[in-house]
Amino acid sequence: METVDLARKLVQEGRPFAAHEVLEARWKAGPDEESDLWQGLAQVCVGLTHAARGNSTGAARLLERGAARVEQYDAGHGPAYGLDLTAVIACAREHAAAER
Question: Which of 78, 73, 69, 80 is nearest to 45 (CA)?
């Protein structure tokens, strides 16, 4: 999916806030039953942004909040769009723990 590919590329380039913008647009334009996925991924990217800017508290909160939303979505077995949601959740929580 184009959204996932673009967001992944932006994160890899060190531009997590730009990835957040892409994911937020998809969240707001997408179907309600997918909102937890897109909002959660957007929150993870904002968490990464906070971490890069030295805001450990904000980073940990948003990374955990994003992981929880993605986890909630994953429990409903909706489409993952090529993402390994278990790995996304684990990675976000590892980053959150490192920020504490």
Answer: 69
Q: What are phi and psi of 19, to 5 degrees?
A: -65, -40
Q: How far apart are CA 23 and CA 6, in angstroms?
A: 9
Q: What's the mean per-residue pLDDT of the chain?
A: 96
Is the pLDDT at 24 greater than 90? The verdict is yes
Contacts of 68 (CB under 8 A, 6+ apart): 40
Identify whether the C-beta of residue 41 lies closer than 8 Å to the C-beta of residue 66.
yes
**Token pair of 42, please?**
């957007």
Whole-model pTM? 0.95
Examine the pLDDT at 44 and tell me if it is beyond 80.
yes
